[in-house]
Write a structure and sequence with these properties.
Elements (H helix, E strand, L loop, with lengths): L3 H21 L6 H60 L5 H17 L4 H12 L6 H4 L5 H20 L12 E2 L4 E6 L4 E2 L2 E2 L4 E7 L4 E2 L3 E2 L13 E3 L4 E2 L3 E2 L4 E2 L3 E2 L4 E2 L3 E2 L4 E2 L3 E2 L4 E2 L3 E2 L4 E6 L2 E6 L1
Parallel strand pairs: 1-4, 2-5, 3-6, 4-7, 5-8, 6-9, 7-10, 8-12, 9-13, 10-14, 11-15, 12-16, 13-17, 14-18
Antiparallel strand pairs: 19-20
Helix pairs in contact: 1-2, 2-3, 3-4, 3-6, 4-6
Length: about 300
């Protein structure tokens, strides 16, 4: 099979001879003009071939780059998967500093690969759901192992907050499942959260959800209940619950503050315990709200205050 270049040369020569011969038959055309015109016609064929060749090279180069990009993406995904698997494995390491390093590695992966964010948050929440006790919660001596594990867990809590988007960004937030988790100084303030599960969670010292936006359902059912597991300071000022907010059976050992909070969905505090009262100053309710027996909402200053009935 003859090459395109050979066919181009043959066509160029044939056109040169054909055009030149045809023009020479015209008495009004000089030999120089005939040769010049024939040369231009033959050169045009060569130029068209050069353009075709450049276009072909361009397409070949684009295809090569696409293949290289695909190979790079595959390698990147493989490295990310290996990094993720290794970090999860190290979460079970005996040394607390190794566990902290694994948590930071997972958070770093979520920052560089946004598609991993929900998965990494699920892993961090799973770590926080692991059984944990601390001597201070029970009023007994604290062991070094408990204190080291507490520091690891505080790191996990901080990384969960860091991976959540700010409350003013568009779109839904990631989901958090902290069912039965043991948390201390838990702070998600001014973050956007999808669904939040804190059922039967143990909340110590303080919990700060002020300024949060919850785009999904939030369940605090029976959080902080049980001996030695009372909720400490609970701040939820200026938060927004766009869906259901469920506080059934939640036990607040200190004053709970829901001032200026917006409850857009159904809200219930049925069987909740307010040992030191609750504030709803400036709060708004767009749907029904259930309060525990003996409490009622009293309109005040454009909002509500919960008072004993």
């Amino acid at each position: 099979m003859r090459s395109p270049l050979l066919w181009t040369l043959i066509a160029s020569v044939a056109l040169l001879c054909g055009v030149g011969g045809w023009l020479l038959t015209d008495p009004a055309t000089s030999r120089s003009e005939a040769l010049k015109t024939a040369g231009l016609a033959g050169g045009a064929v060569v130029a068209l071939y050069a353009l075709w060749l450049n276009d072909r090279r361009r397409r070949v180069e684009e295809a090569r780059q696409a293949i290289e990009q695909q190979r790079h993406d595959v390698d990147r995904e493989r490295i990310s998967d290996e990094r993720f698997a290794k970090s999860v494995e190290l979460l079970g390491h005996e040394a607390d500093q190794v566990r902290v390093g694994a948590l930071h590695a997972l958070a770093g992966l979520a920052r560089t690969r946004p598609e991993y964010r929900q998965t990494v948050l699920d892993v961090l929440c799973s770590y926080l759901r692991r059984p944990f006790t601390h001597g201070r919660y029970e009023g007994v001596d604290v062991t070094p192992e408990e204190e080291r594990e507490l520091q690891v867990r505080l790191t996990a809590q901080r990384l969960v907050r860091d991976l959540l988007p700010p409350s003013d960004v568009d779109g839904p937030g990631p989901d958090l499942d902290l069912t039965g988790a043991v948390l201390e100084y838990f702070d998600l303030s001014r973050r956007k959260i999808g669904g939040l599960l804190l059922r039967h969670a143990s909340l110590y010292s303080s919990t700060n959800l002020s300024g949060c936006v919850f785009t999904g359902q939030a369940y605090f059912t029976a959080a902080g209940t049980g001996p030695g597991r009372l909720v400490g300071v609970f701040r939820c000022r200026g938060a927004t619950f766009l869906d259901r907010a469920w506080f059934s059976g939640t036990e607040f050992s200190e004053r709970a503050n829901f001032s200026d909070t917006t409850f857009a969905g159904r809200t219930t505090f049925n069987e909740a315990i307010f040992e030191d009262g609750v504030l709803f100053t400036g709060a708004s309710f767009s749907n029904s709200v259930d309060l525990p027996t003996g409490w009622e909402l009293e309109p005040r200053n454009g909002g509500y205050v919960a008072v004993p009935s």
